Amino acid sequence: MSVTLRPIEAKDKPEWLNLWTGPGGYIEFYKSLEKITPEISENTFSRFLDPKEPVYSVVAIDDSTGKIIGFANYLLHRNTWTIEDALYLNDLFVSSDSRLKGTGRKLIEYIYSEADKYKCKKCYWSTQFENHRAQLLYTKVGVKSGFLLYRRPD
Ligand code: ACO
Ligand code: ACO
To answer: Could you tell me the distance, in angstroms and rounded to a whole number, from the CA of residue 107 to the centre of ligand 1?
Structure first.
């Protein structure tokens, strides 16, 4: 499958929103549709396009249809251990009928090239313990950090 990756653009909003909160999309995968209000989605999409915001998205386009089949959303942030920012891959998604054809790997390779471009010494992400499918990819392209992730209780 021939796939093109490029930074998200304003015209991508309907297709991106469909993969984000639409049926079979990323937020549904996380069973979190009640948390992600339309206001949050609007805000997130606007930040991708705002050069003052350290919030980015890359989309994967199936060259045979011109449709967006996946995305990776990522953030740059300060880090006390480096002068340079760190890159955090917040969200990675490939639509179910386009999986296992190398798009997820390509999106991560794009993220690595962004980390190089912004001189980020640290490029990282987290995933759920039970997300074995994603980990089949992650063990090939990354290493386990050795850290546990905690959060404030709800
Ligand atoms: N059985 C065997 N191998 C598998 C399987 C499987 N079920 N799934 C993946 N793999 C392996 C493949 O062999 C492949 O390795 P290769 O590159 O050496 O051939 C790799 O893992 C899959 O690579 P891709 O085809 O590049 O990945 P894909 O396009 O299928 O996308 C993704 C993977 C993004 C995890 C997709 O399944 C998805 O969107 N899942 C739902 C949402 C999700 O889990 N997102 C990640 C959450 S974590 C985060 O956001 C940071
Ligand atoms: N045996 C039993 N219980 C222990 C032990 C021990 N050896 N050590 C800690 N605890 C328990 C205590 O019972 C206490 O529980 P309580 O509040 O119910 O009484 C709790 O764990 C420790 O609490 P504090 O006294 O508030 O913590 P402390 O002042 O000892 O600081 C810290 C803990 C920060 C982890 C310290 O040990 C430290 O600096 N360690 C080295 C650096 C480190 O590991 N930092 C954290 C790295 S992760 C990160 O930075 C996000």
So the answer is: 11
